[in-house]
Design brief:
The complex is a heterodimer of chains A (430) and B (250). With 430 residues, chain A is an alpha/beta fold. Helix content of chain A is 20%, strand content 38%. Chain B has helices at residues 40-48, 72-77, 95-109, 117-130, 148-162, 178-190, 230-239, 242-249, and strands at 2-11, 14-24, 29-33, 54-62, 65-66, 80-83, 90-94, 141-142, 166-170, 197-202, 215-220, 223-228.
Chain lengths: 430, 250
Amino acid sequence: MDTALQSYLEGYRSLPAAPAWLRPLQEAALERVEARGFPAARDEAWKYTSVAALEKRGFKPAFGSVQLDADVLGTLLVPGLDASRAVFVNGRYDPALSRLPEGVRLVSLASAEAGIKGSLDLHPDWEHDTFVNLNTALFRDGLLLELAPGQILERPLELLHVTLPEEGAAAHNLRFVIRLGAGAQGSLIERYTHQGEGKHFNNVVTQVTLAEKAKLEHVRLQAESTQAFHVARVLVRQAACSQYRSHNLHVGGAWTRLDLHTRLEAEGASAYLRGLYAVTGRQHVDNHTRVDHLVPHTTSQELYRGILDGQGRAVFNGKVVVAPHALKTDAEQANHNLILSRGAEIDTKPELEIYADDVKCSHGATIGQLDEQQLFYLRSRGLDEASARSLLISAFAEKLLTGLPQPAFAAYARQLLSTSISAIKPEGQA
Amino acid sequence: MLSIKNLHAKVDGREILKGLDLEVKAGEVHAVMGPNGSGKSTLAHILAGRDGYEVTTGSASYLGKDLLAMAPEERAREGVFLAFQYPVEIPGVNNVYLLKAAFNAIRKQRGEEELDAMDFLALVKAKMQFMEMDPSFLNRAVNEGFSGGEKKRNEILQMLVLEPKLALLDETDSGLDIDALKVVAKGVNKLRDPQRAMVLVTHYQRLLDHVVPDRVHVLAGGRVVKSGGKELALELEKRGYDWLREGATA
């Protein structure tokens, strides 16, 4: 067995026990973890992201041993954002710090009844993924959000995870389950932030199920400490005419791997995927996306942009699968990267698997530096070189930030970006 | 105001300017004409400070300072403005934001205070009206999706807002229909002032029907081969450039 897994297996015993109904599920997942181990370097999906770095850290599962002060939480909030909020601290839900929306079914997974078991089911595609299985075996908290048919979530719900430094190298496993009934609509913000520079590993699984005509706006921001390891799986299933809109932002973390997979399972379903990653220092961010067009008349539109500075490294792998008979599929994908330094690196790969005729699929990937003509134009108008560069880098990110559903959140993301990428001056925002 | 002496310049090792002389005084409007490849645009780019040109001999001084030693932004702040032949599209940068940043950079240089947002907007809107531009252009990205004529109007709008001391217009008339040409000319004429000089780089006479120059220079083979009054432009229109080009290569 993979010795790096030992601490996770031991963790299963040392963590507080999960409810009895959950244990068989967790033990089965644990067996699959043992059988499969961590992904090896020869695994194509992990070609550019080495799990060795994660294995070396020897993270140990931990569960909410520290408390977050309400005053400190105040400093971590998004200014001006009008949202309800569920706060998690080092993997544990904190009801006292949360302000939940009313009239919505929300279940803390730590105290959930057996009735929710079915909602944890995963599509077989993910059955053998070690990080998903680790999550299933080790999560002790999380949240189930369920919107009834036709229900409209009035304000966005923010799932805020704060990591505080704690003893040792802690691994936190969180599970989020989001289910929208037919015609339901909601806006969700998943945000990962930190206080202090703790070394930790957050392994998150977010399952989204959209019934007919449901609409979900899903913002996800990973802004963890520069010591943090972060693995996430966002697994979406979409029924007829449902709309899933994702805004996936990364500005923090040392080592991040996110897989976003959406299955368009019935006609008229559409996915709109937007992503922005900024890496600097020695940060590593890997985004793998996959859209399955399984039936006729489904659409996907994907745009990811990356800003690479310092010795930062990013990976983008965008897979689009068009199943046989999925006629009239309309899939669009683009990935653009701006490289600001010699030491930075991007590996980008569009992957189209098309098994049907009469489809419209396009993809494109670019890697470039700032445009000399644009720089000269701005300087010829009196902007100094640093301001001109700052303005152009911000403009590159702006394409994704202006599209965020909450302007207050966009302003917050801009500010984070300018803190992370030193070539962006805070005042250089248009 | 602008004094160019024996200017030689290379692009990619090839000599484009071969001993160019030009004197422009405050209050004057000069037209620099010439056939394609004569070095007109090279001259405009060198004066604005674009990279990629190697000046091998000669000098260009502006208000007594060595213009060629100044960074592009210093030139702009000191009052030099280049209206581009091909204005650059900058997606993600708001038109009014750029105008304001440019305007304040120049005011700061002059030791003046930044104008507050409301006053600035009022000023820009008045100038836009003068240039017959829709106010919606303010909140669009710089030149993005603008037609050729809209881009040129936008250049002149920037010029009107920034009020340069020395304006260089690089083929501003190219690609304009007659109505747009008139509006652009109106903008240029509005800025004519005893304290200000302008250099219009152009291939054709037609802009000069609307903006009457004090002096006309013909550039050929990287040098000024003939200078004269406004009537020289008319002569060029009639006779073409060939009779001068022969003289230049001799």
